[in-house]
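Forwarding these from the shared drive since the link keeps breaking.
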Amino acid sequence: MGVCGEFIRISKEKAEQLQNGEIHVFDLLEADNESDCLLDIYKYWHIIDFVLVGNTQENGDNPLSKVVLGNGIPVGDEDDIAALLKTPVEISEINQAFATVSEKTIREGFSLAEMKEHDIYLANAYNNEDEVFRDIYGTVESISHFFKEAEQHNQWILLFLS
């Protein structure tokens, strides 16, 4: 089965309700599973993190490290999930960093062999680097667009890994 990732754009009110325990992550998933406020990144979350920032231990100051596995406000108390809220300020910083990302910059740092060496989740399931690159780059573009939409609407983003 494996760990899948989803981003959900939410209002400040929903973010506050999550933080206060008034609603749960699963409530949002059920409510928004058909909307354009949900972005499924499948099982690519770890590959995307690695492609955007390389070794995350060495890139803590890079705003792109906040896209997936970096900072965020933890919410929820379920044992089998990870849920992090990204604030509008973080989203703005991430969007500024996304401006430097292009197909060329992603391709330059893309190495399936290196991902396998670092035990990046799901990397060992693939052998065709060009095919994986196309999927990952397309997903990165979708994430970038998703974060821009959130900033334009002054929304928060919830990352949900389960």
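-- next protein --
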Amino acid sequence: MFSLIRLGALAMCAFLLSPGLTACRGETASTIVQTKMQEVRAMSLPFGVSMSQASTEAQGGPLAEVTPSTSPMKSYQGNGYTISYPADWSINQGTTNVTMTEPAMQYGIAIVSLNNPNGTIDANEGLQLEAKDLASNLSNVQDDNIASTTTEGGETWYQKEFTGTFQGEKVTYAIMVTNHPANTSGTKIFEEVYFAPTNQFSQVKAAYIQPMLTSFAFTA
């Protein structure tokens, strides 16, 4: 999730630094922000985290058929939320983020939540920044023109979906962003990005992602 590097830095500068660090200028502040960026980069590699597999498939190997998981669902407790995921999926967890990917690491979902008191970072603005930065790492980007908002966990989320090419492989990303609760001292900004090879995206969404999104619940 590339622009969350920017979003994370904004949030860190405005809200997460100690009282003595009031701007992103001091050495200590920079170190904190760089750490946040590294955490975000770890979950942001396009097309899941297994480009070597994707590259092999792009050269002629068939993509595996998407079939619903027979694995039981497990509950994950995140920063201000819970979500269920297939028990055989891999979890890569950072301080404020998590990536969940299927065993072959070809598709999955990434979730980030950051303190955002009073909703200072607008959710739609965050979505547009994220989409712009992520799309800049792809070629032949096409907007999939989905509805601009959706509902999850009783909250309205801004959303965007687009398809592009990364290292010769067509991939599709969907991004969702919201603030919860709205305009309070305890507001957090939440972002979800789910991704899959374009020719599997609809199947992946129906078999895995939609049940996960349906299970999502805010805990505060």
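Confidence is low (pLDDT under 50) at residues 1-61. The CA atoms of residues 80 and 178 lie 13 Å apart.

- D.
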